[in-house]
Write a structure and sequence with these properties.
The protein has 223 residues and is an alpha+beta fold. It has 5 helices and 7 strands; from the N terminus they run E-E-E-H-H-H-H-E-E-E-E-H. The strands form 2 sheets. It has a 4-stranded antiparallel β-sheet. Strands 1-2-3 form a 3-stranded antiparallel β-sheet, with no helix packed on it. The chain has one domain (60-222): Nuclear Transport Factor 2, Chain: A (Roll).
Length: 223
């Protein structure tokens, strides 16, 4: 499964309100003012004939950074998915050799997390989870291989299991270029660095946290 490319084309021609006006005068033809044509594309006006500016081509560093950040940001979808759909989702952004391993490890981590929360009867799909990547660093990139570190905060809320938990962590992923797409080939997560709460901060009730966790998630740290 690969993410598709959304292609769209909108074309509207407007010349001074949609009407081409040709005004004859007694002046010589070479002195007559030519009417500028205006093209309307996506709501922005530009003078006709003006060269279209092609979007910048992402660099290799941008591509590997985005691939790593997207993978880390999928934590909530991965945990809430069922066993089969979780495996399929993980295999969509990993290499064929690493996907099954990461799927097995993730299932084990989900079970361990539920035990730590103190409720063995809760299903992973019942957890409210969001992981927000904050910063990222391309550690290395050479040919078809790259390593990227992503610093993120993970928030987990389990109904009836007390206040929400926060986990600050750094995820380092190895990536390989496969058929033009950067895929995760290794995953290593360590705790921290973890900022302290402000002195005047108090721990919020889980119901308050669930409400905001279930808002529309901001992808890729707001970009």
């Amino acid at each position: 499964m690969r993410r598709g490319i959304v292609v769209f084309c909108a074309l509207a021609v407007a010349v001074l309100g949609g009407v081409v006006v040709s005004k004859a005068t007694s002046e010589p033809a070479d002195a007559q003012a030519s009417t500028a044509s205006v093209a309307q594309i996506d709501g922005n006006q530009s003078v006709a004939g003006e060269a279209d500016v092609a979007p910048p081509v992402p660099s290799d560093e941008d591509r590997v950074r985005d691939a790593a950040v997207r993978a880390v940001a999928l934590t909530d979808d991965v945990f809430s998915a069922g066993f089969i759909s979780r495996r399929e989702l993980i295999e969509s952004f990993t290499t064929d050799s690493f996907g099954p391993r990461l799927a097995d490890e993730t299932s084990q981590q989900a079970t361990k997390l539920i035990f730590e929360l103190g409720d063995r009867d809760i299903m992973p799909s019942a957890l409210s989870i969001v992981e927000q990547p904050l910063t990222s660093n391309v550690v290395s990139i050479s040919g078809a291989e790259a390593t990227v570190a992503v610093w993120s905060v993970l928030v987990i809320v389990a109904p009836g299991a007390g206040p929400a938990r926060q986990v600050w962590r750094t995820v380092t992923v190895d990536l390989k270029l496969v058929d033009g797409e950067w895929l995760v080939d290794a995953w290593n997560s360590i705790s921290g660095p973890t900022p302290a709460l402000a002195a005047e901060s108090s721990v919020s009730d889980s119901s308050d946290t669930i409400e905001v966790v279930e808002w529309v998630h901001v992808d890729e740290a707001g970009r």
